[in-house]
Specification:
Elements lengths: L3 H19 L16 H6 L22 E6 L2 E5 L6 E7 L2 H7 L13 H9 L2 E7 L9 E6 L4 E10 L4 E9 L6 E10 L4 E9 L5 E10 L4 E8 L4 E10 L5 E10 L4 E10 L5 E10 L4 E10 L6 E11 L5 E10 L4 E10 L3 H9 L4 H17 L5 H17 L1
Parallel strand pairs: 1-5, 4-6, 5-7, 6-8, 7-9, 8-10, 9-11, 10-12, 11-13, 12-14, 13-15, 14-16, 15-17, 16-18, 17-19
Antiparallel strand pairs: 1-2, 3-4
Helix pairs in contact: 1-4, 5-6, 6-7
């Protein structure tokens, strides 16, 4: 049995979710949240029942020397040996049972504020709970491999990093089903002095939609490093929320999105400094070609009395065609006075002077362009500590440059 407060939390969670997904304004294309996103197209799309596999055979390959966990339709399909320090649990959509394992479920990603996390809360069929014990350091990364098998899928994951633990996790989304929709929600609770490196690789086809929601709560002296890599896919809509709840918490969130043809990538982020003496760094970069488009809407909030904050935010975008479009909106909300915060955004094409300089040194225009684009992406790639991920992403960048 769960306690009375948790029963109330459960009822509130379900009630808020149901209210939001039945509210016609939640997906209003004229709203600030969606005005630069193709949400009207999503609302009008009928996802067919019969799966059709894309002819693109490229998928995210297995990552070297990792613990592989294959996930299909939100359920674990294959599990190789997992260290005893890690507890892995699967529960169906029974919030009473989930609360018995983790009372914070549903509170990190607030479904009362975002349609797609609310939809996931109502529709997910299975919840994967991954817990790493206190004082445990896991050397081998865990690779969560998502292979979509249905036209609509709702995946739910809860990760609990206990005190003084350390872990690396890779998520990869392989979607070869055309005209499909995947809704994934990941919640992460980081206890005192825990450390987590978290990578997410998104790879789809020319007609799939991925709505990805990531929520993190960090307690005292915890350290979270996140790299989000959107290498292809028709529509990738990412929502990231991080709350630095206690002193000494540090977060570094970065992203690289590579868009071509008619593809679109959204990155909406919110980092909240709820306590003093915390640090955040956010860097997102986009490479856009063809008729692709992107959105970056990031906000850093420094709460009242959260003094001694150091926070920076940057969004830079490189357009490889005249028809590619980018909308960028970095924001700061500061309610304390002893802080060091910065933000900025740039969008433009390849620097003509740099290109001219390299060509004057005998480098062909094609090779010079490759060098400059790789240099642009290097700030994000250098953050990646797993070489297999870099080996997968770098050819995507080169292919994009060769086509354009």
């Amino acid at each position: 049995m769960i306690s009375e407060p948790l029963i109330n939390s459960k009822h509130k969670l379900i009630k808020n979710s149901e209210e939001l997904i039945t509210n016609k304004q939640s997906l209003n294309p004229k709203s600030e949240r969606w005005r630069f996103s193709p949400i009207k197209e999503f609302s009008n799309t009928k996802f067919t029942e019969k799966p059709t596999t894309s002819t693109d055979n490229t998928i995210v390959p297995p990552i070297d020397d990792c613990i592989q966990i294959k996930i299909q339709n939100g359920k674990i399909q294959n599990l190789k040996s997992i260290p005893f320090e890690i507890e892995l649990t699967e529960l169906d959509n029974d919030i009473d049972k989930i609360y018995q394992k983790s009372s914070e479920f549903g509170s990190i990603v607030n479904p009362s504020n975002y349609y797609f996390s609310a939809k996931n809360t109502i529709k997910f069929s299975n919840c994967i709970i991954l817990t790493i014990d206190k004082n445990q350091i896991i050397e081998k990364p865990i690779h969560l491999i998502h292979n979509q098998s249905n036209q609509e899928e709702f995946t739910r994951i809860f990760i609990h990093c206990k005190m003084n633990s350390a872990l690396k996790i890779i998520e990869s989304y392989n979607n070869r089903l055309e005209n499909s929709y995947q809704n994934s929600v990941v919640e992460i609770l980081m206890e005192q002095s825990s450390n987590l490196d978290y990578y997410c690789i998104q790879h789809g086809n020319n007609s799939n939609w991925l709505f990805y929601t990531l929520g993190i709560i960090q307690k005292k002296n915890s350290n979270f490093i996140n790299t989000l890599l959107s290498s292809s896919g028709y529509r990738n809509i990412n929502e990231i929320f991080c709350d630095l709840k206690e002193e000494g918490a540090e977060t570094d969130i970065s992203g690289l999105y590579i868009c071509d043809k008619e593809s679109h990538c959204d990155n909406h982020t919110k980092i909240v400094h709820s306590s003093p003496n915390s640090f955040s760094n956010e860097t997102f970069k986009g490479i856009l070609a063809g008729n692709s488009s992107g959105v970056f809407n990031g906000i850093i909030v420094v709460e009242q009395d959260s003094q001694k904050i150091n926070s920076s935010q940057s969004n830079r975008n490189l357009l490889l065609s005249s028809s590619a479009q980018m909308n960028s909106n970095p924001q700061l909300e500061i309610y304390a006075d002893d802080v060091k915060c910065s933000h900025g955004s740039t969008t433009g094409q390849i620097d003509d002077e740099a290109l001219f300089y390299m060509r004057s040194r005998g480098i062909s225009e094609s090779d010079a362009t490759k060098i400059l684009v790789k240099g642009f992406a290097s700030e994000i790639l250098e953050k990646i500590k797993i070489k297999s991920i870099i080996k997968f992403i770098e050819p995507k960048i080169e292919k994009l440059v060769n086509k354009n």
